[in-house]
Amino acid sequence: MKILAIESSCDDTSIAVTNGNNVLSNVISSQPIHTEFGGIVPELASRSHINNISRLTYSSLEIANLKFVDIDAVAVTSEPGLMGSLIVGSSFAKGLSLKYNLPLIPVNHIEGHIYSGCLEDETLEFPFISLVVSGGHTSLFLVKSYSEYEVIGMTKDDAAGEAFDKTAKLMGLGYPGGPIIDKLAKEGNPTEYEFPRSMINSDDFDFSFSGLKTSVRYFIQKNFELPLNELDKKNLAASVQAAIVDVLKHKTYKASKKYKVKNIVIGGGVSANSLLRKKFNELESKGFKIVLPKMEYCIDNAAMIGFLANKKIEHSKRKYNDLTFKVSSRPMRSK
Ligand code: KG4
Ligand code: ZN
Question: Rounded to two decimals, what is the model's pTM?
Fold first, then answer.
């Protein structure tokens, strides 16, 4: 089944064409316009989606060497995300579905991230633990099948990506902060400063990163003058990064021990972090299988939406002809 998939939940517009488990094209266009504001401006995000979505659809079809008439179904991210951004994608998808008389499959964005491990590695078996870690989400899932998973932990305040971005802002660096901190940290000392590892020893699998941001703010105010010199930037970046990655790894490891699961999948933009990748890969020596999908399937992308839409069609008897579904920004629940 050839699926045209649309993802526009936040600030990336992505259109993919999938055929079963195969990705025929996956174009992703990010929106540099937010850089000058130091964060995502929702109104600008939806306007950019409107400007890009049609052009990207044609280019995705062209890469896949297909035309609209070759497509069997349309899939679209329906939740969670920025309301305006979701509305652009879903309205476009509904229009295509009506025009070409195609089934329309609404897909949950976070579920897309969860199953991106299966898209990357067809040998991956259930159950697995999934850590979704991005600018908007930090959650742990116990995934039992394509239709059943449990939310076992989530952040109580900021997401890990937000912690990277806000720390970078406090340090006078650009946006998004994650990649900049990652780069600086390579030449810094991670033990130079000690930042809090909030909730690392709590009995649950929840996270909290807002205390880290506050602690960095006061630490900088007390000990440095802005602008920071290069060495201080590097050491601060390395120390903050170490604190974030420590918590993510420790909690994920603890969850996989508790649920006796040997497969771990990590998705979301923060999974690009080089220390995170190194630290999680170290778990392979303890007998864990670590799946870190390639970056185009970790960041927001439509390939994961098309892949999961195909699984939904395979595993359910639903007709997928409802054009009245509403988009939603509500967070995830267990299934
Ligand atoms: O998944 P994503 O592209 O978009 C959503 O937030 O949904 O994730 C973006 C987040 C940003 O907070 C960004 O700073 C972070 O991922 N990020 C990184 C790195 N690359 C992107 N964080 C740490 N290290 C990186 N190399
Ligand atoms: Zn995402």
Answer: 0.93
| Spacing, Cα 260 to ligand 1 middle (Å) | 29
Residue 10 beta carbon below 6 angstroms from any ligand 1 atom: yes
Transcribe 180-225 into DSSP letters.
HHHHHHTTS-TTSS----TTTT-SSS-B--HHHHHHHHHHHHHH--
Same-fold call for 2-113+298-314 versus 125-295: yes
Class at the top of the CATH hierarchy for domain 125-295: alpha beta
Q: Which of the four CATH numbers 3.30.420.40, 1.10.8.100, 3.40.50.1970, 3.30.70.20 does domain 2-113+298-314 have?
A: 3.30.420.40
> CA 71, CA 4: separation in Å to the nearest integer?
7
Q: How confident is the model at residue 333 (pLDDT cuts 50, 70, 90)?
A: low
* Best residue for ligand 1 mutational test, from 134, 162, 183, 278 (most atoms within 8 Å of Cβ): 134
134 lines ligand 1 (CB under 6 A): yes
